[in-house]
Design a protein that fits this description.
alpha+beta, six-stranded mixed β-sheet, four-stranded mixed β-sheet, 11 helices, 2 domains, about 375 residues, about 40% helix, Creatine Amidinohydrolase, Chain A, domain 1, Creatine Amidinohydrolase, single chain
Amino acid sequence: MTHLTNSSIPSRLARLRAKLREIGADTLLVSQPESRAYLSGFTGSSGWLLIDPDRALIATDFRYYEQVALESPAYELSRVVTTFAAALPDMVQQLGAHRLAFEADHATFSDVQDWSRAVPDVEWVATKGIVMELRAVKDAGEVATLRAAIALADEAIAAGLAQARPGMTELDLAWIIESYMRTHGAQVVAFDMIVACGSKGARPHARAGAEPLVPGEPVVIDMGARIDGYNSDLTRTVCLGQPNDPARFREIYSAVLRAQLGAEAMIRPGMSGQEVDAVARNLIAEAGYGDYFGHGLGHGVGLAVHESPRLSRTSTDTLAPGMVVTVEPGIYLPDWGGVRIEDVVLVTEDGAEVLTRAPKEPIIG
């Protein structure tokens, strides 16, 4: 994962240390996996970081001792023999921590109990989003990796739709798309793929199943690829052949597409996530379907599929250059189905660049 082990790590640590000064903590304990990878380059499944103004420690078990040396040369290894809580007192003593911040939006209540019992003499400081704020703005290397993951998703859905036929199952189509991604550079798929035909498409998070693809019924496909730890996220809605309910399908599809294009055209640095969401939501409401768009417009995407910033009715996030977000309005009608269209968008200095290139033609064949 070259993007995580390159020269970006020292600058990320420097920005994190500035955040620590802002909140008045001298040390941060990082347990969230994506934040751990972002700050250290470590890709193992188990590990904790302890970072102060001068030093950075990483704790992990026997499985990963050699991996730490390869992936996290800026860190000193603390060996976990039994539990992390048992290793923590020595780590805290090494750094002389007094006000020890932790990720309250990730650590469980049980975790904090174990840590505070192991190290009772420090002041524990609950923080939220301290690393996520840094991760929200992507550097050039991250954007390049995201572009590759997005391009692969574009290629994979094209390959899948070229082979899609009525009568094959949702799982059949999902496997064609997944196979393409895995054989063309993806580490894994970014998440469990959604392929939902007909009325099943009214469930925004339906999963591909044994149901057949029915000619003329809308099919919602939501998928993504992961390359070097970074994820893409893509949704298209198609019909195999002419729609069975052509007037309704075209009306709903057009409303969703107008909402998406309208929001993408308005994105600018300084806008709030709530303001961007409102652009699309108002257009869908004007089309008469406001009650059928129940989720947020989008979310940040990077090391996690869903991260900051959020585009929603309740978002307080402010867009800044370098942020990468999805724009994915949808309309979902019970007993009929759904339409969702999703792109990934990069916030630029004066607007936005749509990174997704997959066509939006809804009729296949």
